[in-house]
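Hey team,

Sharing the Succinate dehydrogenase cytochrome b556 subunit run so nobody has to redo it. Sequence (112 residues) first:
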Amino acid sequence: MFSSIMHRITGSAAVGGVVLIAAWLVCLALGRETYTVFLQYASTPLGLLVWFGLSLAGFVHLGGGLRHLIWDTGASFELKKANALTAWTFALGIILTLAFWAVLFATGKVSL
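Structure output:
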């Protein structure tokens, strides 16, 4: 039940991320000044926290989708296996998010 609710919440957050990316593209289309203002807000600690949360939501939602793909094959429906698969879903989301942000910081794409 918890994983179902979290899948819906992370899906909704991912939609919010798509809206934010659309706003980024609009700012890009409006010109250098508008784009610079967007980047100034997006690169603040609060902005980075929002981006981090959106990436976490996206990766956890991806994990939930993979879990459903596995279930579509008829596998892991037993309670013990389903619970383990759910735990792996969240672990995958956290690991991918941390790896993604580690690469961003290591390559200098993001800094505090």
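The CA atoms of residues 2 and 62 lie 16 Å apart.

Ping me if you want the raw files.
A.
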